[in-house]
């Protein structure tokens, strides 16, 4: 009997395992294709839940708020202080640039309602001027005084305009308009006081030399210690009674001492002064505005009684003085920038200081009236020159 071995094909074990593996792979692939097709079919037939997206958006918003809160909490105090300081600098800059507007507004308020400034007595007035001078002193160094010696020409012209031209011009205008002796004395007093601190701001706006402006203001401010009492004794003593020694003492107390203290503090603690210096414009403008309002309020009725005649005379004093300072520099062959600076420095006076001197050391009440009128016209003339020159470029400098 034949065996079955000859009738069956001979299959090796390796071939049979390979065939079985291929069948399993085909079955697995078919199952995967069916499962994918089933899921696609379910996606087409299942409706979209529209409420899911707003929930996700709300969650993202909440995460954003949480992130902002965490960032704010993690920000250092120095960063917060820096942002606040930068904001203060911007506000302070705008506030200082609007100085002429604040001056006119304070004068108008003092003229319309003098009781608004009744609290600002003579002692407060003196302290306010001292603070103003001290705020100027801490911005000065010994190098500023050395720089004054490096430009003797313009500084000398401004000094002569301040203490020779302006007092004589005040006397001439008073005589020409036939004003009363106390008013004439007040005009001479306005002409014989130092330059105003607001001139530095107006010089900056007018494209002038700000560093030279600071030197000029410093020189006339220090000069008022001996020049104003001298002029008061020589020129005003023949018109009205005056306490020249008292004028000198007040000048040293209100001007010299605060400036010396400021310069010494700047020399010994410069880092502290650099930190305090950004406050100086705000303090200076605020003090000046209050002093202007108080000056006008103290002479409100006398200013009204004087009428427009005194207003015109005081306006001409500042206008002619500024023009003379400008053309004297041009005649001496100085540049446009220096001429503008000298004009503003000559036209602008520390009229509030004149009010204080007239109140303390002149017997007649009317002597202070021209200084009270001057605080307004000084700011108007200085800011007007600054605005006009701002739009006229300086050529060749």
TrEMBL record:
It is found in: Membrane. The chain crosses the membrane at residues 94-112, 124-143, 155-173, 179-198, 210-232, 244-267, 279-303, 309-329, 350-367, 373-392. InterPro entries: BilAc:Na_symport/Acr3, Bilac:Na_transpt, Na+/solute_symporter_sf. Keywords: Membrane, Transmembrane, Transmembrane helix. The keyword Transmembrane helix applies. The keyword Phosphoprotein does not apply. It comes from the Eukaryota. Its main location: membrane. One of its GO terms (cellular component) is chloroplast envelope. It is a multi-pass membrane protein. Belongs to the bile acid:sodium symporter (BASS) (TC 2.A.28) family. This is Sodium/metabolite symporter. It comes from Chloropicon primus. The lineage of its organism: Eukaryota, Viridiplantae, Chlorophyta, Chloropicophyceae, Chloropicales.
